[in-house]
Amino acid sequence: MRLLLVEDDDHVAAALSAVLARHGFAVTHARSGEEALQALLPCEAAPFGVVLLDLGLPDQDGYEVCGKIRKRTSTPVIMVTARADVRSRIHGLNLGADDYVVKPYDTGELIARIHAVIRRPSADAAQTPAETELRLGGVRIELPTRQVSVDGTAVQLTRKEFDLLALLAQRPGVVFRREQIISEVWRTSWEGTGRTLEVHVASLRAKLHMPALIETVRGVGYRLVAPAS
Q1: Per residue in 101-149, pLDDT tens?
Q2: What CA–CA distance (Å, rounded) separates 95 from 158?
Q3: Does domain 2-118 bear CATH number 3.40.50.2300?
Q4: FRET pair for 179, CA 20 to 30 Å: which of 9, 25, 121, 195?
């Protein structure tokens, strides 16, 4: 699988490229945001399976680059950065990043996250013709088109945000264990994904302007509380 590594530090890029190559990835290295965007232009080569995006780039802020990437392609994007605060994570995910890894990281963790984002979400595979739309009060979830609206107003969600919402909405009131959500949405059992789950839940609450829609069940997981019709 082809992987686009966007990293301005040649030493970091060389070391990481060697690790990724050992795991079967064909790495293309871009040193700036503009190089990354040029590399993503349609060409005869196979498309990239994933983009690893550093935020500290010399020509553009990584957040800006992520927004431009998301307008061009649905290729999964993993932000790799030293910015560890929750606000930065939420901002990155809102821009369309599929995951957010904080430096310094364990390479095994990074490889696990790469494999998690390139797998197709199980919600798509489990969908049947009868399960085309979910309605919860003013919330409307269209499964085939992956569109969400609240009281008729469209809400833009990332792929993982949609998968998470669709999973919880299929069984309102039922508590989903954290491990179950991570398994079904991220397709992995790796424990470190838990922090990413928390960030996605916070982002969903903010985007839908319904903080009470997803309830945290302390020590267990989350459940969707159906709003009054």
Answers
A1: 988 888 888 988 888 787 644 344 444 434 578 888 889 999 888 899 9
A2: 8
A3: yes
A4: 25
Residue of 142, 116, 139, 151 whose CA lies nearest to 204: 139
Query: Between 194-208 and 86-94, two packed helices, what is the crossing angle to 10 degrees?
Result: 70
Domain boundaries, the chain: 2-118, 133-224
- Taking only the tens place, the pLDDT of each residue in 194-217 is 678 899 999 999 999 999 999 999
Burial state string for 164-183 with b = 16 or more CB within 10 A and e = fewer than 16: bbbbbbbeeeeebebeebbe
User: Can you state the angle between helices 62-72 and 86-94, rounded to 10 degrees?
Assistant: 20
Looking at the domain covering 133-224, what would its CATH class be? mainly alpha
Q: d(Cα 79, Cα 25) in Å, to the nearest integer?
A: 18
Q: Please give the model's pTM, rounded to 2 decimal places.
A: 0.61
